[in-house]
Amino acid sequence: MKHEVTYCGLTFEPYISRDKIDARIAELGRAISEDCRDKFPLLICVLNGAFPFASDLFRNINIDAEIAFIRLKSYEGTTTTGLPKEVLGLSDDIKGRTVIVVEDIIDTGHTMHNLLNTLREKEPAEIKIATLLFKPESLVRNIKPDYVGFEIPNKFIIGFGLDIDGHARNLNDIYILKDPE
Question: Of 36, 63, 137, 173, which alpha carbon lies 20 to 30 A from 26's?
């Protein structure tokens, strides 16, 4: 892995290597393929952060599947606003479909809770959640992801789609905020 990086005056250290990310995404792809083998699932990628994860996950699913995109925002800087707002909505008809929401990270669960409520109104057959990262100790909503890449501590992270004020999304590895010395 690379060395420490600095964005927006904060220093981040390597946390999860791209090799580990790739291996875990392959495992998740196999699990989804098995669980949804006769369902033609629709993956809904939550932009912008989940794009790298969704892209790799989609390519690791070996059954017929479809992908769509929705854009939500709930972070400003290093903290969640707690008030996710829909920026770009879903136009696909999901009634009677198996839907897999693909998210980069589940933190407090507010964003996912609101998104699930919106999706349920469209009457899918079932909704599953795939998240690259999960912070169980930050969770305040009753959200149980079906597919979890990695459980992580309640610290701010960047890379592999996750950003700080628009920066660092294109890092191949995941970095964690370094503790002050």
Answer: 137
The vertex-54 CA angle with 36 and 108, nearest 5°, equals 95
CB 68 within 8 A of CB 46: no
- The one-character DSSP state at 52 is H
Q: Closest by alpha carbon to 170, among 42, 60, 52, 73?
A: 52
Q: Residue 48 pairs with which residues in a beta bridge?
A: none
**Active-site residue set:** 107
Long-range contacts of 167-171 (CB under 8 A, 24+ apart): 167/7, 167/8, 168/5, 168/7, 168/12, 169/48, 169/49, 169/52, 171/2, 171/5
CA gap 147, 128 in Å, rounded = 8
Per-residue pLDDT tens digits of the chain, which is 181 residues long: 569 999 999 999 999 999 999 999 999 999 999 999 999 999 999 998 999 999 999 999 999 999 999 987 555 555 555 555 554 677 878 999 999 999 999 999 988 998 998 899 899 999 999 999 999 999 999 999 999 999 999 999 999 999 999 999 999 999 999 987 6
Take residue 157 and report the two structure tokens written for it. Answer: 């992270």
